[in-house]
Design a protein that fits this description.
Length: 405
């Protein structure tokens, strides 16, 4: 029998490839008929991720050397490096490359299919699949992996409650347009630009990233408090249109429009496995909400789960409640690799985005940006936002980072 993975995003595809290369029989199922559909992701990763997570070179759309942050009053701060700090990925191409690598490793790819149900039994899991024509198919597999992202299509039924055992679930929505820009792309070249403050959007942030062939990736994400009367979708679209007008980008052709949700618990206390069902990537809250970053954390979860899942396939060591002892290592191992800074970053994200609305939030942000402008280099900003090294800025800046001042 094989392992079935539901969801062929970065986490699911990478896991499928690793397991197949280890000699496992793997089936990868995805609702999308092709890898380029709804390719919503800001898709910015640090330069180290290319080698660390075997990111296909063909998926790299642009390199960048500078951080540019536009403050609440419209002014900007820029930190530049002589070296390349990171890349902007073409997310659709990333998926396509990962699909190809998985198939070449021997994975059975079922695109346009979906998993209707999973029943975890003592000797196997019974799965009902639905093909693109609506026909139902039953399969017996050893394990099922939920890699369906924030939808948590399968593992959510095993999670204890809507509040994940008192671990708060933060929710955000985002939109992104891809523009064809033949004239002004040099203004945004080699930099990733962010827009922070109530003049741009409440409870969120915007971005403009360069892409290959004179394209621009422009988007907004908002993480609105539960008691707010604001509508995140309308806030995002209004902010995006205002941004395009501000920088005279509103006449450019829009090549793609896409959007989606981001959901993550702060402490990742939700169940990561239930019998023969295991979660991976965003399904177990690997997306970090400070910058909406998910790709490299999802890939990390795949690399941690793969050897444990292979061992579980060959193990008869099962607890009385049907849990596999080897899979119980998974959540602890993943939390240890993400580290304590990852959790602190999510706490900061909650304070930052929920509090970023109006004068008080703007003033706090001004102080933070001014402090960083005086103390930080481009490499320091990368360490702050990618490695979550908040403590390196000393006690003077930490209160602003965590919202105490």
């Amino acid at each position: 029998m094989s392992i079935l993975i539901a969801g062929a995003g970065p986490a699911g595809s990478r896991l499928a490839e690793i397991l197949a290369n280890r000699g496992c029989k793997v089936t990868l199922v995805d609702r999308l008929k092709n890898a380029y559909q709804n390719s919503f992701s800001s898709a910015v990763v640090p330069i180290s991720s290319i080698d660390n997570f075997s990111i296909p070179i063909k998926s790299i759309s642009a390199y960048w050397k500078s951080w540019q942050i536009f403050a609440p009053d419209g002014s900007s701060h820029k930190w530049s490096s002589k070296n390349e700090l990171g890349v902007v990925l073409d997310f659709g191409e990333l998926r396509q490359q990962l699909w190809t690598k998985a198939i070449n490793a021997g994975v059975e790819m079922l695109s346009g299919w979906k998993v209707n149900s999973v029943h975890s039994l003592s000797s196997h899991a019974q799965v009902e699949l639905q093909d693109p024509n609506g026909n139902k198919h039953l399969r017996k597999v050893l394990f099922v992996v939920d890699a369906t992202g924030q939808k948590r299509s399968l593992i959510k039924h095993s999670q204890a409650s809507s509040n994940f055992g008192n671990d708060e679930l933060l929710k955000g929505t985002g939109i992104e347009w891809i523009l064809q820009d033949e004239k002004s792309s040099n203004k945004w070249k080699n930099s990733i630009s962010f827009f922070l403050g109530s003049c741009w959007i409440n409870h969120g942030y915007g971005w403009i990233f360069p892409m290959a062939k004179n394209k621009l990736k422009v988007g907004f994400c908002s993480i609105i408090p539960p008691n707010s009367t604001l509508c995140s979708n309308s806030s995002n679209i209004n902010a995006l249109k205002k941004l395009l007008s501000k920088f005279s980008l509103n006449t450019l052709p829009v090549i793609e429009r896409h959007g989606g949700e981001i959901k993550s618990t702060i402490k990742r206390r939700e169940s990561h496995s239930d019998g023969r069902l295991v979660g991976i990537g965003d399904a177990v809250s690997t997306a970090n909400l400070l910058g909406g970053e998910g790709i490299r954390h999802a890939l990390l979860s795949a690399e941690i789960l793969a050897p444990l899942l292979e061992e579980a396939c060959n193990s008869l060591n099962i607890s009385k409640n049907g849990e596999f002892f080897v899979l119980q290592k998974y959540q602890k191992s993943l939390s240890r690799c993400l580290g304590w800074r990852w959790t602190v970053s999510n706490r900061i994200a909650k304070k930052t985005w929920w509090g970023l609305s109006g004068k008080i939030g703007d003033e706090r942000l001004f102080k933070l940006l001014n402090g960083l402008a005086l103390k930080a280099s481009a490499e320091d900003i990368s360490a702050l936002l990618f490695e979550y090294e908040f403590e390196r800025y000393g006690l003077r800046l930490l209160p602003y980072l965590i919202g105490l001042r």
